[in-house]
Write a structure and sequence with these properties.
Blueprint: E1 2-24, E2 34-44, E3 50-53, E4 59-65, E5 69-82, H1 120-129, H2 136-150, E6 152-153, H3 164-170, E7 172-173, H4 175-188, E8 193-201, E9 206-216, E10 220-225, E11 230-231, E12 236-242, H5 245-248, E13 251-256, E14 261-271
Parallel strand pairs: 6-7
Antiparallel strand pairs: 1-4, 1-5, 1-13, 1-14, 2-5, 3-4, 8-9, 8-12, 9-10, 10-11
Helix pairs in contact: 1-4, 2-4, 3-4
């Protein structure tokens, strides 16, 4: 499936700001499941963009605006072709998570992070979710189903900086929160799990989305979406991955000036023209 994606973030400040330094993670990943056919990033006020790859191999564009400005526009346009990946059978069995705790590439994804913990309470929930299951893949599916069943999706019920412990306490959240809770439960039972940022195109809407990838020995990273209780398909477009939302926030930065501002985000995803 080929998708045309437009992602716009606009900030309007109550008074002029300056010395704005920003990192943008809005470039889709190119891998065996998706190919970036084109990508363009526009920033206004116009400035020079510097591109680099971060620690988790995500593409980052850095820019600086030293002069006074009252608005900032960050707009990306991309065409991405997604390729079907045969889903791993829900009856498949692999190894125990204990067998891969020494994998260097998995180390960060077994530890607590900014929005995710592996505290005793989380560990007990993970044991409840995987009761009687020892296979890593089957445990991953059990945790996904547990999160889907025990959390209620409610728009605007949390903020981007909400910790998974708060989500569990109130029992509701958005896709970011579903992903954080699933990752925490996975890490407690030694399943390497990482946070994925991207887009999901549906019949009802197009939006940014978050899901989870777990490391399956002998197979690699496999994507699971706890918000929708399923494996991902060609309607998902991946932007990047990290320990949690903090590592792959679309825009991060700071500036000097007023704290009063408005932010407007628009995402549009549609099938790309075949012409």
């Amino acid at each position: 499936m080929k998708w045309e994606i437009k992602h716009s973030t606009r900030y309007e400040y109550a008074s002029a700001v300056r010395d704005s330094f920003n990192d943008v993670r809005m470039t889709p990943v190119s891998n065996e499941q998706q190919t970036v056919k084109s990508f363009f990033l526009k920033v206004l006020p116009a400035t020079r963009l510097q591109r680099y790859s971060d620690f988790y191999a995500n593409v980052v564009h850095h820019f600086e605006i030293p002069d006074d400005h009252t608005a900032l526009l960050i707009e990306s346009s991309a065409i991405v072709e997604t390729t079907p990946l045969a889903p791993l059978s829900e009856n498949a069995t692999v190894a125990s998570g204990e067998a891969i705790t020494s994998e260097p590439s998995c180390f960060d994804f077994l530890q607590p992070s900014r929005y995710i913990d592996v505290a005793p309470g989380t560990w007990r929930l993970a044991l409840d979710a995987t009761d009687g299951v020892t296979d890593l893949w089957q445990q991953s599916l059990a945790i996904m189903r547990f999160v889907y069943k025990h959390l209620v999706y409610e728009s605007n019920s949390t903020r981007v900086h909400t910790h998974m412990s708060q989500v569990l306490e109130q029992g509701r959240g958005v896709c970011q929160d579903f992903a954080h809770v699933m990752i925490g439960l996975c890490r407690c039972v030694k399943i390497p799990a990482r946070y994925v940022s991207g887009y999901l195109a549906t019949e009802k809407a197009s939006a940014t989305h978050a899901w989870v990838e777990v490391y399956v020995p002998g197979i690699g990273w496999r994507a699971l979406d706890p918000t929708n209780n399923r494996q991902t398909d060609t309607s998902y477009v991946k932007l990047g991955n990290g320990r949690d939302y903090h590592d792959v926030s679309p825009v991060t930065g700071y500036y000097k000036g007023t704290l009063e501002h408005k932010m407007q985000v628009e995402v549009k995803i549609q099938p790309a023209s075949t012409i």
